[in-house]
Amino acid sequence: MSKIRKGDEVVINTGKDKGKRGTVLRILESGQVLVEGANKVKKHAKPNPMKGINGGIMEKEMPVDISNVALFNRATQKGERVGFKMLEDGRKVRVFKSSGEVVDA
Predict the structure, then answer these.
(1) Considering the domain boundaries, does residue 26 fall inside one?
(2) Of 32, 36, 54, 65, which has the fewest CB atoms closer than 10 Å, so is most exposed?
(3) Which stretch of DSSP H or E encloses residue 52?
């Protein structure tokens, strides 16, 4: 079970996009996450009419290391660390370290 999952709202902790918020689009095998609207770069693309690709300069999101993002807590409006806790019914849930509040309902 991962502390950060696809669809979670996260905050970037370091780098040029520090403080930006976005949702996790993908989690890569290399321990990196793709965050919507963060770490955008410009890529030069050659046109390829066979694949329907127009040429030019395109903006795309690049992965951010998973250690540089924190899960967004709506109650405190901040990014916070996450831990795990076992409930009485045997379920394992994610909780915020600061308040002990359950992330997953």
Answers:
(1) yes
(2) 54
(3) none
As a whole number of Å, the CA-based R_g of the chain is 17
Cβ neighbours for 77, distance < 8 A, ≥ 6 positions apart: none
CA-closest candidate to residue 102, choices 82, 88, 78: 82
Cα–Cα distance measured from residue 50 to residue 73, given in angstroms and rounded to the nearest whole number: 45
Its domain, for residue 24, covers 9-77
Fill in the amino acid letter for 58: M
Would 94 be classed as within a structural domain? no
| Domains identified in the chain, total number | 1
89 CB contacts (<8 Å, ≥6 apart)?
Answer: none
29-69: pLDDT as tens digits: 999 999 999 999 999 999 999 998 889 999 999 999 999 99
Contact of 3 with 71, CB cutoff 8 Å: yes
pLDDT the model gives residue 99: 87
